[in-house]
Design goal:
Length: about 120
């Protein structure tokens, strides 16, 4: 019985529209307008969902990244990462939260690569 339910869930998940080579679930699929509304209305539950999702995305994305990138993430800190995300969301209210988060991450990685010193031979 459990296998049937799991198989049915996997079939549904694999036929759903994919975004950015992944299927985003939960808060990542919220529009930026909805994500920001949690902070305007002081909805603590939704605030925690937004912050948790953003930081979870970054945490997973940090796997196998170079130490300088990880050091920079730690220096910036979780609160600032969420603040930056919400500021970008303000400029793109119709974008999905995962799209904005992914763009910030990609820009951060590109900046880190540009700032990296060439390897000595």
């Amino acid at each position: 019985m459990n296998r049937t339910i799991l198989a049915a869930a996997l079939c549904v998940a694999t036929t759903a529209p994919a975004f950015s080579e992944a299927y985003m679930m939960g808060t990542g699929r919220w529009t930026c307008e909805r994500a920001r509304a949690a902070f305007v209305t002081q909805n603590v539950t939704d605030q925690a969902q937004v912050a948790g999702w953003v930081l979870g995305y970054w945490s997973h994305a940090s796997i196998d990244k170079p130490k300088p990138f990880l050091d920079k993430m730690q220096e910036v800190g979780g609160n600032k990462i969420v603040e930056i995300t919400l500021a970008q969301c303000q400029q793109n209210p119709n974008a999905m939260l995962f799209q904005v988060t992914q763009a910030i991450l990609q820009n951060s990685l590109a900046e880190q690569e540009e700032g990296a010193e060439p390897a000595s031979e």
